Amino acid sequence: MKIVLAAGFQRDVKTLPEDRLSAVFQSILALPKAMGEPHIHTGLGIRKIHRSGIWEARVGLGLRIVFAVAEEAITLIRVGTHEDVQRYLREL
After folding, report:
1. Looking at the domain 2-91, which fold is it?
2. Average pLDDT score, the chain
3. Domain residues of the chain, as ranges?
4. pLDDT for position 34
């Protein structure tokens, strides 16, 4: 499965400290396999957060990755705190 980085995700990642960046990278690598096997994603806390097909995955306690899933690709949309994710959802 292909992983696509949206412009907003790329901007968000540039502001992260090195330790959080590493955790985000580890979560991104785990996403494709976790989407196909529900019992694997318990640590990522993957859940659908919008009816339009927007999902989130946890990266530790305070960070979330927002993404969309298509047939052959996962598009990473944003990365941020719970409040950042809520703000993004209000803009949809």
Report:
1. YaeB-like fold (3.30.2310)
2. 90
3. 2-91
4. 83
